[in-house]
UniProtKB/TrEMBL annotation, chains A, B:
It catalyses: (R)-pantoate + beta-alanine + ATP = (R)-pantothenate + AMP + diphosphate + H(+). ATP binds at residues 34-41, 151-154, 180, 188-191. It comes from Kaistia geumhonensis. InterPro entries: Cyt_trans-like, Pantoate_ligase, Pantoate_ligase_C, Rossmann-like_a/b/a_fold. GO terms for molecular function: pantoate-beta-alanine ligase activity. Catalyzes the condensation of pantoate with beta-alanine in an ATP-dependent reaction via a pantoyl-adenylate intermediate. Beta-alanine binds at residue 65. This is Pantothenate synthetase. The active site is at 41 (proton donor).
């Protein structure tokens, strides 16, 4: 039986907790989340548990990364069951602030990125990465963890966070883990809870289309043709795709040629009123 | 005779130096500058000298805070004499990176502010405060000084830096000192070096107009009228004013009423090809 995690509500308490651990010579890992925890999040917690002495998970549905017509209000909020799951994994602290703690009146600072933040998600969610970069910076600066864990499911977000940490020399190592999937291939996401039973049956076809397109690209031939085929397959399956794109896996730049570079295939597609994203290595 | 300061060229060396001081329990103060040091800068160094155990001055003409038509190329660069002045004051370290160290290829992160960064300078130098906030954050995160010194001469910049440090909870106290002036009232500025002898004789009339306008506002009556008179006085003296404005001294918001709040009078005006700024408490 693990001790329940201490529940922190303020950045001041977050910093005091981690500073106290650091003063004892203990290493600290942070898992930033928006709650509604699934096994993808828990894999991040377990890996942090293996790597550091003290683990703090953060739960904050960050308003600044949602557009005005997006699902901020509908986003699932399940703090009690989230904390129970984190307790089971022996997490020492949960930082769950409210919006006024993170953005008090007069808050005026935004961190935005070019580079990996350009294109893909940005074409459809123009304010998303400024919201993410700002809140992640505030969390990392709030606790100065030695490591922070992110999933590859949000691949562009991962690269944006890595670039920000590098540019600002934040003293935290960003650790990424592969996407956790259901048995049928669907990438775990808190937004999967929005899917109707019918949509849930269709949803794995996003991962399947990525796999088929990646296999076709690997086998050679015209990349643009393969991407068009994949896009058409998504439409035929009932998705409304925002994009299906092949990018350099480290910079997200458009690859001039397919040879000699790590590549990533990334997609975003609507299924009814739910927007799913996924990506795989090529 | 003081030991000459150690000259640091990389953020890695800056952090190693300050971390080593902190590990010995010593406090660290930083004075961020663009070089071309004058007595205003040196007053900041001397005050830091009194407050902390180790002082690091930074010298970096930050390209991102200059607009395309501004004086980045012409800005005075006098590193050797700057370092000699800092040596005289017993500064332990000078951080003088080149642009590639601060903005390596692929650098993608910008920190921008609303709040105190809106209006005044922003109306004429739209990218200025994003450049300032980003470079100051990089310097503070590069060295994690306990205090950092700024002059009130760049009053809006001071408030922008304070707001950013507050919003991001950077673990550095911002310490401000009053503007240092020539005997005739002209605020010290590295850009005063641009003035012709004729312009130099006119330049103190900027501070004089601020003083006269502040006195008029204090004596009562219509603020807008007093501001118009001050603006006209600047034009009559040969300036081309960008603005002369009365603002709340803490937020830079437009004051709805003059009573019951700290106020600041701020001005920017061109004299020939030189843009001067100044401000005073009301």
């Amino acid at each position: 039986m693990n001790r329940p995690p201490v529940l922190l509500r303020t950045l001041t308490d977050l910093r005091a907790n981690t500073a106290s651990w650091h003063s004892e010579g203990l290493t600290v890992g942070m898992i930033p989340t928006m709650g509604a925890l699934h096994d993808g999040h828990l894999a991040l917690v377990e890996e942090a548990r293996r790597r550091v002495d003290r683990v703090v998970a953060t739960i904050f549905v960050n308003p600044t990364q949602f557009g005005p017509k997006e699902d901020f209000t509908a986003y699932p909020r399940t703090e009690n069951s989230d904390v129970a799951k984190l307790a089971t994994l022996g997490v020492e602290a949960v930082f769950a602030p409210n919006a006024a703690e993170m953005y008090p009146p007069g808050h005026a600072t935004t961190i935005s990125l070019a580079g990996p933040a350009l294109g893909l998600e940005t074409d459809y969610r123009p304010h998303f990465f400024a919201g993410v970069a700002t809140v992640v910076a505030k969390l990392l600066l709030g606790g100065f963890p030695d490591i922070a864990m992110f999933g590859e499911k949000d691949y562009q977000q991962l690269l944006v966070v890595r670039q920000m940490v590098k540019d600002l020399r934040l003293p935290t190592e960003i650790v990424a883990l592969p996407t956790v999937r259901e048995a049928d291939g669907l990438a775990l996401s808190s937004r999967n809870a929005y899917l109707s039973p019918d949509e849930r049956r269709t949803a794995p076809k996003l991962a399947a289309a990525l796999e088929a397109t990646a296999a076709a690209i690997r086998s050679g031939g015209d990349v643009a043709h393969h991407l068009r085929q994949g896009f058409n397959a998504l439409e035929a399956a009932g998705f409304r795709p925002d994009y299906l794109e092949l990018r350099n896996a480290e910079t997200l730049a458009q690859p001039a040629a397919v040879a000699d570079q790590p590549l990533r295939l990334l997609a975003a597609a609507w299924l009814g009123r739910t927007r799913l994203i996924d990506n795989i290595a090529v």
